């Protein structure tokens, strides 16, 4: 009961903060030239226009931490989804390693959005994260309508001593390489420049700050980083914004964690049809971890699947299917498959995961599929279901270290796949953290259902959620 009360309080407070960040802001979605754009502005806003761009595998929702306080300060903010990202249904294409390939197309898309925005007589402000930093610098070249720029977790070879002129660089304190690259960009103007110091040479102004306790993603919710951004734009436009920057990062974390922690209270209301776990011995555990870890990359990599217009998702779907099928075969052979299907438990867990996804999509990152992604999710479902049912069966009733070991084998198999085809499967390394988060977030909810209904229902539900998550997380891409 105490857990439930605390969880509800945390959820309510988190929602209060997150909705407070939207207070008075009109959020309007539309398209220009096929690009989904979201406008953030208070009623009758007449301030300068700001264009915000997200990083690789991101979405415009990830940039709300910057868009909302700027909008409340009177700026007119336009955030958009790059090709193949978020709500954009058109595939990203071209050679990702060539400036004349994917980069050129994204620069053209960005310039199209910039051309659409009514700057209202002011130079246009640009804010970008990660991949978008290089895109924005290139998009601003040769234009006379661009004013202050803020580049977050930036790296671009196009930054030189004279361009961009009004540039704030923000890095997470834990991004050592990008932090140094940002400082080097400032030192092109003043060789002895330090972090937190604004330097100027003629018309060129530069500043670099490190957001404390932040890395590549959490820097997007850093109050220090967002405060520096607003101050930089205010300085450029001669404004003095008085807006409180709310701790939305902690609120997002509180909301999502609260939903996870509250779920066991609901799961305890399920009909008790608990199933005893089958205790695998040490040799069996070694085989159920090692054999699929070896076979999955050995079989899937030579197959070289390329049936989906999504970076490495088709490979991962095949890898998951093989890995799960081998594990299920072994568990069946040893008589370790347990439990019947409980559709009530399946619906409860799936519905709660959907609620989690809706909250994530509204406040943090895209998690809702567009029409173009439905068939992709459908093709990823078999692999997700086979893998998660096998995982649920193998980890049923297991302690932490056994669960850790079983899942470590899967990540080792992904590492083996990358080693076999580094160039083709490099992006699996970027997806691995998403899979870790999947286990951290949804794993506990699945275990609570398994304790009441057995492992089959949560395995099937989480398999559907895994296919969904992979289908919406990967950028749509076609070479």
Structure description:
The protein has 479 residues and is α/β, with parallel strands linked by helices. The chain has 2 domains: 2-250, Alpha/Beta hydrolase fold, catalytic domain (Rossmann fold, 3-Layer(aba) Sandwich), CATH 3.40.50; 272-478, no CATH class. It is 55% helix and 13% strand. The chain has helices spanning 2-21, 64-72, 99-116, 131-140, 176-187, 223-237, 248-267, 282-303, 313-333, 343-363, 371-395, 400-420, 422-425, 428-453, 456-473; strands at residues 25-32, 35-42, 49-53, 76-80, 92-93, 124-129, 146-152, 166-172, 198-201, 204-211, 477-478. The protein has a 9-stranded mixed sheet with strand order 1-2-4-3-6-7-8-10-9, sandwiched between helices. Strands 5-11 form a two-stranded parallel sheet. The longest helix is centred in the last third of the chain and has 26 residues, at 428-453. The chain is globular and about 75 Å long. 49% of the residues are buried. The model has no long low-confidence stretch (mean pLDDT 93).
What is this entry, summarized?
The protein is α/β, with parallel strands linked by helices and 479 residues long. The chain has helices at 2-21, 64-72, 99-116, 131-140, 176-187, 223-237, 248-267, 282-303, 313-333, 343-363, 371-395, 400-420, 422-425, 428-453, 456-473; strands at residues 25-32, 35-42, 49-53, 76-80, 92-93, 124-129, 146-152, 166-172, 198-201, 204-211, 477-478.
Topology:
Layout: H1 2-21, E1 25-32, E2 35-42, E3 49-53, H2 64-72, E4 76-80, E5 92-93, H3 99-116, E6 124-129, H4 131-140, E7 146-152, E8 166-172, H5 176-187, E9 198-201, E10 204-211, H6 223-237, H7 248-267, H8 282-303, H9 313-333, H10 343-363, H11 371-395, H12 400-420, H13 422-425, H14 428-453, H15 456-473, E11 477-478
Parallel strand pairs: 3-4, 3-6, 5-11, 6-7, 7-8, 8-10
Antiparallel strand pairs: 1-2, 2-4, 9-10
Helix pairs in contact: 1-7, 3-4, 7-10, 7-14, 8-9, 8-12, 9-11, 10-15, 11-15, 14-15
